[in-house]
Amino acid sequence: MKSEKKECEATIVSMNLIADHIKKVASKLDTCSVTSLVNGIMDSKRIFLMGAGRSGLAARAFAMRLMHLGFIVYFVGETTTPAVQPDDLVIAVSGSGETPSIANLGGISKKIGSKLAVITSNKDSTLGKISDIVVIVPGRPKEDIVYEDYHERRMIGYPQLAPLGTIFEISALVFLDAVVSELMVRTGASEAELKKRHTVFE
């Protein structure tokens, strides 16, 4: 007799899949490229973040934390965002590195002469090839989850556990939040200082 399927099993398996993937990303992270990104942030007059869809949400979250740290930061596409200048740093978040709008904006920022950094899964992408700093955050891993039960594997499958760009988007968000921790150490900023800059209009 078949054992009854555990309640919300896909939820738990998905969370573990994502957590395991983030651990793998952390263990294989190219610290040289991360150091270049951190140095670029520290040395730049202004910082511009950009990304589309859920990658854009990860970029916005990072922009907010940079503001909390006291950096002058903007999100590309907002009506109040000023023009990019040569001494600015532009950071793009794009799993494929091929999102047309973001790749085009990356090309424009390079023509202006600003420094371009990209958080991506694809170093050989359009953005990867033109960026000064490339941080690789792998997306969907090659190896799928292995289920004990053949039918579970057929019914649930990897795409249902982390569809589309979920793995990259969450990994990028966690990575960028970890960079915030690095910047706090570098600048000596305390959580209390970050809290002072947090919006009161909530």
TrEMBL record:
The record's section on CDD domains has: SIS_PHI
- SIS domain spans which residues? 37-189
Q: Which SUPFAM superfamilies match?
A: SIS domain
Q: Name the domain of life.
A: Archaea
Per UniProt, the keywords (alphabetical) are: Isomerase
**Which GO terms fall under biological process for this protein?**
carbohydrate derivative metabolic process
Which Pfam family, giving just one, matches this sequence?
SIS
The record's similarity note reads: Belongs to the SIS family. PHI subfamily.
Protein name as it appears in the record: 6-phospho 3-hexuloisomerase
Segments spanning the bilayer are none
Q: Which PROSITE patterns match?
A: SIS
Coiled-coil intervals, chain numbering: none
Which GO molecular function annotations are given, in alphabetical order? carbohydrate derivative binding; isomerase activity
